[in-house]
Design brief:
alpha/beta, 7-stranded mixed sheet, 6-stranded mixed sheet, binds NADPH dihydro-nicotinamide-adenine-dinucleotide phosphate
C-alpha cells in the first residue's frame, strides 16, 4: 500500500504542469482518511489553456494527418500500457474510490480492452454512397467533431475515462478530460501512459479540479465542439445548459433507479445471488445498480430471508484487505447522504431488515463504511424507492402481477437499466419489451460489454457510449455532391 503521498501534475499540451493558481488538493483514502496523493487544483485558467492546446492540435497539429491505421495502433499501445501498469492502477483506484481490489483489477482490464476495441474500430469508420438523381455522384464522409470536453465521475475513474477517450481518439478528435476531484489519480497515471504510447502533444489534455470552476468552464467553453459527461442527473442538466452557449454537441450518461424484477418462476438461488450483486457491487455506487428489487409476492418473504442469510458473506473492509467484498463509500459527505436516506426509509415506514449503520469494527472507524442495507415492504412512493441513493441500500417492493411489476418498474424519471429473472423466456422478453430503459439483463445483472451500447432513456441521459453506437457520438457527417452534368444549372 502506498505510504508517502505522491505529488502529481496534470497534463496540458504534452507538459506536466501545476495549476495556474498554484493550488493543490489532497486525495484521501476513503478506507482510513489517510492522504495518498496531492494533485493540482485546476480552474478556468487551466481549462482555457488545455482547450487552447486541444484546439491547436486539432486544427493545425500532425494529428489530422495521422491515418486511421496509425490511430488504431496508438490505441493498441495505450491498451498495452494500461496492462503493463495494471497493478499500480488497480491499487490507486482502491486508494481513492474505495472499491475492493478484485473489482478494481476487473475495471483496469476492462479499460485496456476498451482501448483495444476502439483501436480496432478506427479503421472501420466509413461513409456511404447514396442513390441520387443520375446527374450527381453523392457520398457521405465521416469526420471527427473537433475538441471534446469529457467529464467523468468518481465511481469508475479509469474505466469512465477510457469509455470517453478511446472512441474520441479512434475517430480523430482531440480531448480535454476532467476527472472527478475525488478520484483523479488513475487519469493522471494514464497521462504518462498516453505520452509513452506516442499520443501527440495537445491531443489529450487532463485537467484536475472541481466541478464548479473547472467542469463548468469546460462545458461552457466556446472553443469546445462537444461535451461528453457522466455523472448525476442534476449536474447533467447543468452541463447541458452551459453547453447551449455555442450549441456544442452533448452526450450525457446520468443516474438511474433501476428495477431488478424477480418472478416466482425464476431460478431462486441465482436470483438471490443476482439481486445482491446487482445492489451491492462497488458499494452500490453504480449508475446501473439494481437498487429497486421488485419481487413476486408469492416468493417475497422467502426471498428476503435468503438474501439476509447471505449478507454476512459480504465482508466489509478496506479494499486492499484480502477477502473484502465491500469497501468504503467515496467520501464522508456521501456516507452522510446515504445515512440520510436510511433515516428517511425508517421514517416513511419501510422495514429495515439488515444493515443501515456503520460497522461496529473499531478498526474501520476512520473510513466511510456502511453495512449493506436492505429495506423490505417499500412502497413505490417512498423516497428510498424514487431517488438515486448511489450506495449499498436496497429497496424491496413486492408485486402481484406482471402488469404491476412493469408499471412499478417504469414509474421513475430514470430509464437506465433493468433486470428480469424468470425461467419463462416468453415472459422475460415480454417484460423487457415494455421496460423504458436502455440496458436490460435477463437472468443476470451487471455484465457490461465494450461491444454493446451503454446509455439511458428518459432522464438517464442522451446518447450512447460503447459499441458501434459509442463512436457515432464522436463523428460528424458530411455530404459531398459532385455534379456530373457539363451544362450550367440555368435557373436564371
Ligand atoms: P456528479 O454529477 O457530482 O459529478 C460528475 C462529474 O461532473 C465530476 O467530474 C464532477 O466534478 C463534475 N461536475 C460537478 N459539478 C459540475 C458542474 N457544475 N459542471 C460540470 N461538471 C461538474 O456525479 P458523481 O461524481 O457524484 O457521480 C455519481 C453520479 O454519476 C451518479 O448519479 C451516477 O448515476 C452517475 N453515473 C452514471 C453513469 C452512466 O453511465 N449513466 C456511470 C457512472 C456514474 P467533481 O467531482 O470534481 O465535483
Amino acid at each position: 500500500m502506498a505510504q508517502q503521498p505522491r505529488n502529481y501534475k496534470m497534463m496540458i499540451g504534452g507538459e506536466f504542469v501545476t495549476a495556474a493558481s498554484g493550488k493543490t488538493r489532497e486525495i484521501r483514502d476513503p478506507g482510513n482518511g489517510h492522504v495518498v496523493a496531492i494533485v493540482p487544483e485546476g480552474g478556468k485558467e487551466d481549462i482555457d489553456a488545455a482547450v487552447g492546446k486541444a484546439r491547436q492540435a486539432f486544427d493545425h497539429g500532425p494529428w489530422k494527418q495521422t491515418s486511421a491505421l496509425d490511430r488504431g495502433k496508438l490505441l493498441f499501445r495505450i491498451a498495452d500500457g494500461i496492462r503493463a501498469n495494471a497493478a499500480k492502477l488497480a491499487e490507486l483506484e482502491v486508494l481513492s474510490c474505495g472499491k475492493p481490489l478484485a473489482e478494481a483489477e476487473y475495471d483496469i482490464a476492462d479499460a485496456a480492452n476498451c482501448f483495444e476495441f476502439y483501436g480496432g474500430m478506427a479503421t472501420k469508420i466509413h461513409g456511404e454512397t447514396m442513390q441520387v438523381p443520375a446527374n450527381s455522384l453523392s457520398f457521405v464522409v465521416r469526420e471527427p467533431i473537433g475538441v471534446c470536453g469529457q467529464i467523468v465521475p468518481w465511481n469508475y475513474p479509469l474505466l469512465m475515462s477510457s469509455w470517453k477517450l478511446a472512441p474520441a481518439l479512434a475517430a480523430g478528435n482531440t480531448c480535454v478530460l476532467k476527472p472527478s476531484e475525488l478520484t483523479p489519480l488513475t487519469a493522471l497515471e494514464l497521462a504518462s501512459i498516453l505520452v509513452e504510447a506516442g499520443v501527440p502533444s495537445g491531443v489529450v489534455n487532463i485537467v484536475t479540479g472541481p466541478g464548479p470552476g473547472c467542469g463548468d468552464a469546460l462545458s461552457a467553453h466556446p472553443q469546445v465542439d462537444k461535451i461528453a459527461f457522466t455523472g448525476g442527473t442534476a449536474t447533467g442538466r447543468h452541463v447541458m445548459n452551459a453547453a447551449a452557449g455555442n450549441l456544442k454537441k452533448v452526450s450525457l450518461e446520468l443516474g438511474g433507479k433501476n428495477p431488478n424484477i424477480v418472478f416466482a418462476d425464476a431460478d431462486f438461488e441465482a436470483a438471490v445471488d443476482g439481486a445482491l450483486f446487482g445492489a451491492f457491487a462497488n458499494q452500490g455506487e453504480v449508475c446501473s445498480a439494481g437498487s429497486r428489487l421488485l419481487v413476486d409476492r408469492k416468493i417475497h418473504k422467502k426471498f428476503v430471508e435468503a438474501m439476509v442469510k447471505k449478507i454476512p458473506n459480504i465482508k466489509v473492509g478496506h479494499g486492499m484487505t484480502p477477502g473484502v467484498k465491500m469497501g468504503p463509500v467515496v467520501s464522508r459527505l456521501h456516507l452522510e447522504k446515504i445515512e440520510g436516506y436510511v433515516a428517511s426509509g425508517i421514517a416513511e415506514g419501510a422495514k429495515l431488515v439488515c444493515g443501515g449503520k456503520r460497522p461496529s469494527d473499531k478498526s474501520l472507524a476512520g473510513g466511510n463504511f456502511i453495512e449493506p442495507t436492505i429495506f423490505d415492504d417499500v412502497t413505490p412512493s417512498m423516497k428510498i424507492a424514487r431517488e438515486e441513493i448511489f450506495g449499498p441500500v436496497l429497496a424491496v417492493i413486492p408485486f402481484d402481477t406482471e402488469e404491476e411489476a412493469i408499471q412499478i418498474a417504469n414509474d421513475t424519471e430514470y430509464g437506465l437499466a433493468a433486470g428480469v429473472w424468470s425461467r419463462d423466456i416468453n415472459r422475460a422478453l415480454r417484460v423487457v419489451r415494455e421496460l423504458r430503459c436502455g440496458i436490460t439483463w435477463i437472468n443476470t445483472y451487471h455484465p457490461t460489454f465494450n461491444e454493446m451500447p451503454w446509455g439511458g432513456y428518459k432522464q438517464s441521459g442522451t446518447g450512447r457510449e460503447l459499441g458501434l453506437y459509442g463512436i457515432e457520438e464522436y463523428l460528424e457527417t458530411k455530404q459531398v455532391n459532385i455534379n456530373l452534368d457539363e451544362a450550367p444549372i440555368a435557373w436564371y
